[in-house]
Amino acid sequence: MADKELAPGQTYATPGIVDWIEATHVAEDEGSALALEAPRVHGIPAVQVHPAEAKALELLLRMVQARKVVEVGTLAGYSAIHMAKALPENGQLHCLEVDARHARIAEENLRASGLSRRVVVVVGPASETLRTIERAGPFDAVFVDADKISYDLYGRWAADHVRPGGLLIADNAYLFGHLLDDSPEAAAMRRFHVEAARAFHTTCLPTPDGMLLGIRR
Ligand code: SAH
Ligand code: MG
Questions:
Q1: pTM summary value
Q2: pLDDT digits (tens, 9 = 90+) for 122-179
Q3: What is the CATH number of the domain that holds 135?
Q4: Ligand 1 atom nearest to CA at 45
Q5: 96 in ligand 1 pocket by Cβ < 6 Å?
C-alpha cells in the first residue's frame, strides 16, 4: 500500500493539490470571499480554517441536520458563513467573538452572503457569553476555534449542551504542533481531548493542525 511510504504526520498534499481540491469542491460567495481577504484588508490575523475544512464543517452540519449551532471564535466570519449555509431558514448559528472589531467585520461579511437572519454574533469572552445562550439549547453542534487555554472549558460546556448525536468540532487540536509540550495551554488542550473522548465518540482528523470531531454519546 502506497500509504506505507508515509511516516505518521506526513502528507501527500502539495500546494498544487490543495489548490485544485479547493477549486473543485469549495465555492466561495461574496461574503466568504471578503472574509478570506479580511486579514489583508483589515490587518487581522490570517487564521481562518482552510476552505476544504470550511466545506467539511458545512457537510458535517448537514449530516446531523443541524438547526441550532454555536461557534466559539468567529474572526471575520469565514467558517461561520460556510456553517450557516447548512442551516434551514429557521436555523440559528450563535457566533461568540471577544473582539468587537472582528465581530463587526464578521457581521458585514455575513450580510454580504445574505445569511444575517440565521446568525447572531455575540460580543464578549465566550466563558461569559456561553452562559447567555444556554437557554437556546440543546444544540446540534458546537465548533470551537478560539483561545486555546479555554478549550477544556468549552468542551465541558459542549458536553452539557449538545444533544445526543450532536457534534463537537474543534480546530487547532494539535495546538500548532505543541500539543505535547509542558505548558498550561498544552495541558488544557490535552484535557480537552481526554474529556471530549469520554462524553463523545471522538477522533482527531489529520488536518494541518488537527480537527477534533466528536458525536455526543
Ligand atoms: N473560526 C474562524 C477563525 C477564528 S480565529 C474562521 O475559521 O473563520 C479565533 C477568534 O477567536 C479570534 O477572532 C479571536 O478574537 C477569538 N477569541 C479569542 N479569545 C476568545 C474568547 N475568550 N471568547 C470569544 N472569542 C475569542
Ligand atoms: Mg483555528
A1: 0.97
A2: 999 999 999 999 999 999 999 999 999 999 999 999 999 999 999 999 999 999 999 9
A3: 3.40.50.150
A4: 5
A5: yes
